[in-house]
Recover the amino acids of this structure.
């Protein structure tokens, strides 16, 4: 029981509370984010809810809310950490979310070629690439594999590199949590 926590979000105006039971390993920030997003989605779906209403339709929104938490996670990395200029998550050959407009076609084509070369180099050493960093004079790009996605962050060199790396890794861990939980919920819905 010491691994279980509760994340709470409140809407005082409507007298609603969302209590979300979480695994403490998923982190306080993740719990707060999901609880608040669940509450916001519930209020959007049932703007004038009464305790006698049937809320069973909300079940199908849970997975959607968890998957959509990727957007605020990446946006938060940009907003709170001045060294980070761009963050994006790529799933397969499509960009799930990017914090700024980019040339999607050019990025995807070049990224696939880069990952192919990295995979070939690592395969020659009986290994797989998990992350790489490309450093220029003013900027650097961090590319990480998370589950079946690619997480890319562009940041300035002039900002404390160690601090930026910690912030990027914390964000990567949040994304990993979303991907694992989202995948598990998706599997649960397939079974039902």
């Amino acid at each position: 029981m010491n691994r279980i926590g509760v994340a709470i979000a409140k809407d005082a105006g409507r007298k609603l509370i969302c209590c979300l039971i979480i695994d403490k390993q998923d982190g306080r920030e993740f719990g707060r984010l999901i609880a608040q997003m669940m509450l916001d989605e519930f209020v959007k779906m049932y703007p004038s809810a009464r305790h006698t209403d049937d809320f069973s339709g909300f079940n199908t929104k849970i997975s959607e809310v968890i998957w959509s938490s990727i957007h605020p996670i990446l946006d938060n990395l940009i907003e709170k950490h001045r060294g980070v200029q761009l963050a994006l998550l790529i799933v397969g050959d499509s960009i799930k979310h990017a914090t700024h407009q980019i040339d999607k076609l050019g990025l995807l084509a070049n990224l696939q070629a880069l990952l192919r070369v990295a995979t070939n180099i690592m395969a020659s050493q009986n290994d797989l690439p998990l992350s790489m960093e490309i450093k220029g004079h003013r900027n650097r790009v961090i590319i990480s594999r998370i589950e079946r996605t690619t997480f890319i962050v562009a940041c300035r060199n002039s900002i404390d590199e160690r601090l930026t790396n910690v912030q990027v890794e914390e964000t990567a861990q949040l994304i990993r949590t979303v991907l694992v939980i989202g995948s598990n919920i998706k599997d649960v819905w397939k079974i039902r």
Observations:
- Residues 188-192 have pLDDT under 50 and may be disordered.
- Residues 41 and 61 are 8 Å apart (CA to CA).
- The two ends are 28 Å apart (CA to CA).
